[in-house]
Amino acid sequence: MDMISINIDGKQLKVSDGKTILEAALENGIYIPNLCHHPDLVPSGNCRMCMVEIEGGRGQITACNTKVAEGMVVRTDSQEISLIRQTTLELVHVNHTQDCTNCNKNSNCQLQKVTAYVGVDEQRLKRMRRTRPIIVDDTSNPFFVLDHNKCIMCGICIRTCDEVQGVNALDYGHRGFHTIVSTFGDKPIKESVCESCGECVVRCPVGALYMKESRIPTHEVKTVCIYCGVGCNLFLGVRGNSVVSSRGDRESIVNKGRLCVKGRFGYSFVNHPDRLSKPLIKRDGKFVESSWDEALDLIAGKFASSKGSKFATLTSAKIPNEDNYVIQKLARAVLGTNNVDHCARLCHAPTVSGLVQSFGSGAMTNSIDEFTNISTLFSIGSNTTAAHPIIGLHIKEAKRRGAKIIVANPKEIDLCRFADVYMQHKPGTDVVLLMGMMKVIVDEKLEDKEFIKSRCEDYDQFIESLSEFDLDTTERITGVPREKIEEAARIYATNKPSSLVYAMGITQHSHGTDNVLAVSNIALLTGSIGKESSGVNPLRGQNNVQGACDMGGLPDVYPGYQKVNIPEIRAKFEANWGVKLDPEPGITHTEIFNEIEKGNIKSLYQVGENPILSEADANHVKKALANLDFFVVQDIFMTETAKYADVVLPAT
Ligand code: SF4
Ligand code: SF4
Ligand code: SF4
Ligand code: FES
C-alpha cells in the first residue's frame, strides 16, 4: 500500500493510503475518543465521538469512516468538537446505569475512558436524566449475559455477529428511547440463532455483554484448543490452580483471535472434580486407588506375559505428538508388535490411503489462512461451519470478498446459506457426482492441460473411466439436476484459485478411499493443487489426528509413514531403537476388537480413546472387552470404556 503524508494536530505523519483518519491517528499514538470503532469491523460512524476537523473542510466529520488523503491536515480538538462530543456523551450517560463499581469492565471500559477524556457536566446530566424502567438482563444464554442497562448502543455486537460470524442473531429492536439490542422476534438470546461463540461479548466496549463464569486471571498460558482439528491458538487464564478464562490469540494465522463456543467456554473440564488423579486397580469388581509403583508393577508383569501378537495398543488423536511417538515405540520396541492404531481408522484412514496414493502425503495441502484468498471453495461431505467453525469463518470471509462457494452434501447444512451452487446428492453417490463433474470439465475442455502433462500419470485411462458418467446417468444416480452439476464444474474449473474441503461425510464409507481418490482427481484435472489458496483439504475431527498418524500411531508404518515391512526401513529403526522389530504390519482398530473377541489378543493398552462411544457397534466392543485377560486405560475421566479396565491410569 502506498504511503502518503498527512498532518494531525501539527504532527507530520507518513501513513498507508486507504487508512481511516482514526486508524492513522491511533497507530501514531494520537488518541481520538471513540465508542463504536473496532479494528475487525466495517466503520459504522454511529457514536459521533470521533469528530475531527479537516483544514479547508466544512464543519466536523467522523474520523472512523473518513479515509486519509495526501496533504490532509486534521485537527482532533476544538471548542466545537468538545461541545459536540460532550453533548453526545451526556446523552449516552443519560441512558446508562451508573453502576461502575459492580461492573466487571470497571477500569477496562471504553465509556469510562472516553468520559475521562471528554468530560461530562454532572448538573446537566441530572437535569436530562429520565426515569427509564430497569430492563431485565437476558441471562438465557448458558455462557454470557446481556445487561441492557449498561448498553451504549454502539452496535459492535450486532456488526460482529453479522460481519465476523455471519450469523445475524442480533439487531436493534424497538424504537427511539426504548431501542435495545435484541433478537429476531425479541426472544431471549438462547432461543435465537445465536451460536454462543462469544465474539460479540469480547468486543463489547462496556460491561453490557459479559461472561458468566470468566474471572480475571493472574497470568495466561499460550496453548492450542483441544477440541477440533482446526487447532486454534488461545491463551488460557490461570488463577491459583484453576483455569478461569480463555481468549483467542490475535497473532495466530489460524484463528486471528477468534474462537468458537468450545474453545472459548469449554475449559471447565480442566479443574473438574471428576478428573482422575490417582491410578485405580479393579479388585473384586470395584476400582480402588493405588500408588503409581503398585499399578506400574502390575501392568509391567501382565503385559510381559502377553507380548507380540497377543498384545495391542490404541493410541490417541487427542494427545501430543511426543506421547504418540512413545506409545507406538512401547508397542513396537518393548512389546514386540505392530498392533498399534487409533481412532483415525474410524474417520480419516481413507484420507491417508487415498491422498498418499495421489499426492504422496495424507494431509491438508493448504494452510488454514489461505482459505481467505480463495476464489472458489468446494465443500463436500463436510458440515464445515458446525464441525470446524473457525475454518467456516475463513470461508464466510472469502465469500464476503467475492469468492464462489459450491456445497455438495445430502444434508442442507448451514454453509448452504452462502453457497452459489448447492448439490443435494443422494448419500453414497459422491464418486458419481465427482466423475460427472469431471466429465463436464473434460467435455468443455476446461482441464489444465499443462498441469496434467507435467504432473499426472495414466491420464488416458482416467479419460476412459469417465465414459460412463454422462450427465443423464449422473443426474439419475445422484439426484442432482444436470444444470447444477455443469455450473459447479465450470465454477470449480475456471474461477481459480479453487480449494476443496472434505470431511467424514465422504470418508466414513465402505468406499471412502474411492471418494478421496475422486476428490484428488478433480483437483489434479484442473491443476487446483500445489498453489497458494488452491488444494485439497481433509478437515480432521480430533485435535491431533494428523500428529497421531505422523508419529506412527498406525499398524503398517513407523513415524513419518515409513513402512514396517520394508527391510531397509525396519533395519534403520532396529539400529536406532536397539531391538529386533516385528516385520509384519499389525492389525487395525476394528480388527483388534475382532481378534480380542476370538481370544487371540489377551492384553490391550488404550490411551485417550473411548471405543464404546466411537465404534459403530458398541455391543461388539463391550463383548470383546469382557474377553480380555488384562486391560489398561489411561484417560482424564472415567469413561464408558474405562469401566471395563483392570487398571485405569490418570492422564494429563
Ligand atoms: S451490548 Fe455492548 S457491543 Fe452491543 S451495542 Fe450494547 S454496548 Fe455495544
Ligand atoms: S455469541 Fe456469537 S452468534 Fe451469539 S450473538 Fe454473539 S456473535 Fe452472534
Ligand atoms: S474451531 Fe476447533 S480448534 Fe477452534 S476454538 Fe473451535 S473447537 Fe477449538
Ligand atoms: S468511533 Fe467514529 S462514530 Fe463511533
Nutshell version of this structure?
The protein is an alpha/beta fold and 652 residues long. The model has no long low-confidence stretch (mean pLDDT 95).
**In terms of per-residue confidence, which ranges show pLDDT below 50 for 5 or more consecutive residues?**
none
Unique ligands: iron/sulfur cluster, FE2/S2 (inorganic) cluster
- The helix fraction, in percent, is 25-40%
The gross shape turns out to be globular
Spatial strand sequence of the major β-sheet: 14-13-26-25-24-15-16
Task: Report the sheet with the most strands, covering strand number, pairing sense and barrel closure.
Answer: 7 strands, mixed
CATH H-level superfamily of the largest domain: Dimethylsulfoxide Reductase, domain 2
What name does the CATH topology of the largest domain carry? Answer: Dimethylsulfoxide Reductase, domain 2
Structural class: alpha/beta
- In total, the number of domains comes to 4
Global mean pLDDT: 95
Number of helices: 25
| The CATH top-level class label of the largest domain | Alpha Beta
The fraction of residues in strands falls at: 15-25%
CATH A-level architecture of the largest domain: 3-Layer(aba) Sandwich
